[in-house]
Amino acid sequence: MHALSDPTDGDFQLACKHKHDMVCGRCESLRSVLKDIEEMLKTQSNKFYSSEQIDDILFDLARASESIFEWKAHILRSVHQDEAKKDVFEKLDGESCVVVMDWAMKFLQIRYREKQSEWFGKRGLSWHISSFVFRNPVTKLLEVESYAHLFDTCTQDWYAVSSIVEHLLQVIKTKYPAIKKVSLRSDEAGCYHNSMLIATINDIASRLDMTVVSYDYSEPQYGKDICDRIICPMKAALKKFCNEGNDILTAEDMRNALLQRHIKGATTTACLIDDSNTTLNIKKIKLFTRYNNIGFENKGIRVWQAYNIGPGKLIAHKSMYIEHQKATGLIIKGHNFFEVKNPRQLKPTDGQKSSTASDIVDGCLFECPEPGCRRNFSTVSELEIHLDVGKHENLLLQENFYDTMRRDWAARYNSVIEPLTGTQLTTSSNQKEHVAAVNMGWAIHKPKTGTVRFSTTIKQYLTKKFDLGEKTGHKADPGDVEIEIRNARSENNEKMFSREDWLTKTQIRNFFSRLAASRRKQQWANSGTSIDDDVDDDLELMESIKEHNENGEILQEVADEIGLKHPIVYDVYNLCEYYADAKIAKFNMQMLKKICNHFDIYFKASNRKQELVDKIVHVVEECPCTEAT
Question: PANTHER family given for it (predicted)?
């Protein structure tokens, strides 16, 4: 596809046999509307907004437009990447299977009767869901079994996933010896989308004498719903088991609960990761996170940025491995997986029956929630299996040419309209310009272009915000600072920053993080201290200091409720310092009024500048710092 081909790399390009001269009316209408809004604001044809307000609106419009087109690209990538799952399901036979993996949210320990003190500080239990899809050799139907690995404590990294995959494939090989080929699928979480896991999977397949055909990554919030749907009934079963008078505090308790309150097509086991078996050492694969489809071959792995777009790039084994991974040796606590009862089956009518517009829309109660899919079903189980491994029937609802003409005629002549101006007559030419702007690869993930250099003034402003947060104990929130930057004023009530200097919340958070890290590093270098072996001897002292600080924080909270806290700050201006230097009068009238409004200081519109200064000085004199002077 043109949109998912990389223009800079021929290995990830797919040549089209047609010209790209077709226009999507809906897409171009959206692009045209956004462009028209921008042009109207820049020409200032209306008098409703000031120049500062127009800057704010243009900035918000640019960010909103960028988000809209990123969302559009995300939808295209999601639908296209889902084709990999559909193709694998269609090719399933008695010797192949698909495994979809996902970490569930940690399960919080629950008791049948719980004290309030026991409610705090709970330890979450990790559990990993692997949905195994295969074709039953007897019925020839697709079936889904879900395997849950439960952990008391677990670091959710590549090695934990490797241990789970190796144990799962061992179970599959023992239970279904005819299965020789496996296709894996997961989301783009860091524990999955890394070269260490891919290298380990290749070693696991060699040890178990199985063939891992492919590993496909789905787009965020898309493609792993088969795991999410089994987690919900499992959580309900755990809660029901607890309400019957049982505590669930460990992974073995979870297994016992799910054994007693069995979920159709699911099984669990409690286990432990053995980190001592980590031996893998490889050369880092550059830009690996760009690759969303992995194929395993005899000579190496073949990677693609998008499914079946281009021939792909082969990465040889000899260029990857330094030392191979030995058996991970997942430790089973107690019993292994119990028998799966009643695996969910896919009826042949769901995947094989061709659907028309009439039978898609009519007749059934449960509609498919997938955007664009028009299928509906008589029972919940049919809907769930369709969502797991079925085909979505996407129909584009279009009007014919005559209906479009009738709507345009009605819209044109049922209202009073002004004669067409030169600006309105150029709409078609603008749309042609928009069409030309759609280039090859517009929907692929855009690589980061490097760090953006901040101006000196914005750095000084953010540093002042950071320093004031350290002094007052109220650290600046990046979201609030983002808004304050857009409204920041100098002492003369002039805007401090132009639209080009404005930053996002993420940029501000990263700046604060880098600034804090550099200062900690500088403090350690100046003090010359290092972490020694007997640091544990100071734990008791640290606990006493912590308790003292907590008591101090409580007293400080009471003091904050009673009066103002030093220093008194408006934006980045320390009014206590301005008071000590007798500089409060440097602010102009507009800034003085804004300061009064900020601190709820009553004033009249007729008050002169000196009267406003006196009111602010009177408030600042309540600060404890003025008593010391």
Answer: C2H2-TYPE DOMAIN-CONTAINING PROTEIN (PTHR33845:SF1)
∠ CA 221-226-227, rounded to 5°: 80
Average pLDDT over residues 50-77: 87
- Give the mean pLDDT of the chain: 80
pLDDT score of 601 more than 80? yes
Show contacts of 35-41: CB within 8 Å, 24+ apart.
35/430, 35/434, 36/430, 37/61
8 Å CB contact between 258 and 266: yes
Q: What number of other Cβ atoms are within 10 A of residue 177's Cβ?
A: 8
HEC sequence for 5-20: CCCCCHHHCCCCCCCC
Could you tell me if 202 and 296 are in contact, meaning their C-beta atoms sit under 8 angstroms apart?
yes
DSSP 373: B
Q: Is the pTM of this model over 0.85?
A: no
- Domains of the chain as residue ranges with CATH: 92-278+329-345 (3.30.420)
- Give the β-pairing of 300-304 and 293-296: antiparallel
CA distances from 256 to 36, 154, 195, 247, 271 (A): 62, 20, 36, 11, 13
Going through 533-608 in order, the beta strands assigned E by DSSP cover 569-570, 573-574
- Asked whether 185 and 87 are in contact (CB, 8 A), the reply is no
DSSP secondary structure, 62-113, as one string: HHHHHHHHHHHHHHHHHHHHHHHHHHHHHT--TTEEEEEEEEPPPEEPB-SS
Joined together, the tokens standing for residue 226 give: 């088969």
127, 254 Cβ separation under 8 angstroms: yes
Q: Are the beta carbons of 495 and 594 closer than 8 angstroms?
A: no
Whether 199 contacts 280, CB under 8 Å: yes
Q: How far apart are CA 380 and CA 385, in angstroms?
A: 9
The Cα 183–Cα 165 span in angstroms is 12
pLDDT category, 431, cuts 50, 70, 90?
very low
Structure token digits, residue 536: 């544990």
Size of the chain in residues: 629
Phi, psi of 128 (to 5 degrees): -115, 130
Cβ-defined contacts of 70-76 (< 8 Å, 24+): 72/27, 72/443, 73/3, 73/442, 73/443, 73/444, 74/219, 74/220, 76/3, 76/4, 76/443
My answer on whether omega of the bond before 567 falls inside 30° of 0, hence cis, is: yes
